[in-house]
Amino acid sequence: MSFAQLYIGAGNGFSSLTTRNHSPYSWMFCKAITGVVLAISGYVVLTQLWYAAYPEEIAATLPEDVNWGARQPESLKDDGIRPFTITTSPAVIEHLKFRLNHTKFPHAPLKGVSFEYGFNIDYLKKVRSYWLNSYDWSARLKFLNSLPHFKTIVSGLDIHFIHAKPAASAKNLKVIPILLIHGWPGSIREFYELIPQLITPRKNVDYVFEVVAHPAGFGYSEAAAYSGLATAQIGVIFKKLMNKLGYEKFYVSGGNWGFKIGRDMAIAYPENVLGFHSTMCMDMHLAPVPVVWTAVHVWIGSFIPGFAVAKEDEHRLYPLRDYANWLWTETGYLHLQATKPDTIGTALLDSPIGLAAYLMDKFSSLTNPANRKLPDGGLTKKFTLDALLDNVMIYWTTDSILTAVRLYSEYLSNDYIKLKFDAAPVKVPTACARFPHELVYSPDFRVNRKFKNLVRISKYNDGGLYAAFEEPKIVANDIWTSIPLFLKARQNASSGSS
User: Fold this and answer.
1) How many domains does the chain have?
2) What 8-state DSSP symbol labels residue 445?
3) Could you give phi then psi for residue 151, rounded to 5 degrees?
4) Do 115 and 377 contact (CB within 8 A), yes or no?
5) What is the pLDDT of residue 400?
6) CATH number, residue 163
7) Closest CA to 274 of 150, 174, 419
8) What is the pLDDT of residues 140-157, one digit of tens each?
9) Are strands 430-434 and 454-459 parallel, antiparallel or unpaired?
10) Most C-beta atoms within 10 A of its C-beta, which of 41, 255, 354, 474?
11) 39 is in which domain, residue-wise?
12) Strands of 149-154's sheet, edge to edge?
């Protein structure tokens, strides 16, 4: 029986009922049934529109011959893969110390306030003192250079990357290339505890990883001279980099911007990306129908537990008022950097203590919202001040904060949106490691809609936006566990197509 027949039958039945009984409650009941039927019908129609709103492919093939650098192609000398050592001139460090010694602090923080208004001024003074008197940049340089660094020209840019290979003891094992991609306000520093766990062989495992890490525009990589370098275009650069290193096929893992870059690579190059692992799986399709459909789904879930999210995930989305307040509180930087990146970039470029406060604030609130109530912002629960200042120093000594925040503007530009990467499905085998304090929570039903070949969703009890930095052991284990599932999915696909 169709909804129309059900509706007509119900209407006739209740009409005769009210004719006999003349009861106003019968009419009210009839209207209630009518409302339910119409709501269900609307939900079904919206669901069909939801599926129709997703294209199967991106709108255009990405060109690979774009020169993003300031130099003309004929003047570029491709001298292959060059070893690179992180160095800093003494003058840069002396200038930094001068600026720190002459920091102009604002008034004292409000009484009884920790990090609720942003980075606490009293704790910021402690950070400055540690930076000036205890932090040893010479020792930290040795640590940063403990992994092998390289540079090479790709798409007109001098790209810096880490290329860590397994130990000699792994000579009889299969070596699996994996590209690690970080985001903002992170840097290569996020991966220093993770990489050793990937290149060290594991007992009873017949493979080991060879790791390549770094995005363009951050740290020691050259920034684009032209607008338009969004996540998809960075993905092109990384694909070309991996090819240049001799890897035609490889795996990708990333969170934050690393998720979006890796996702775009998986969509654009499904034959090259063997598997995609992420600590921030989301469906970013913001067309009207998916947004309305999700809003209705989530709203119904606020009345019917389990309708929109699994029981163990309800606290991540409900109460909706709390979730909306969390997003409102913690995403101001996104709007600023998407609309005025050069303004905020210029301000941060000229103040080391301002840069430290701005960057480290994110490692407080976006690892756990409860950190806002702590005097030190919870920063020392997961990180050391050395590790956090390493990250700040990478931005300060390379003057890369402005070019890094431009990525927000490029990603939200019409040129990028028109490519429809946010709408197109990811068809390569995908594994999602989900952490409770991700900035934006995408319900599993949307994740499953985006990733057509989802081999694994693992959920953990702690961790936030910077999972590889916060929980390197968990992330390493998740990557190791995902590889056999990727291989099996590829084998099943090959068997099915033959």
Assistant:
1) 3
2) H
3) -135, 155
4) yes
5) 96
6) 3.40.50.1820
7) 174
8) 999 999 999 999 999 999
9) parallel
10) 255
11) 3-52
12) 82-84, 149-154, 157-164, 207-213, 174-181, 250-254, 273-278, 430-434, 454-459
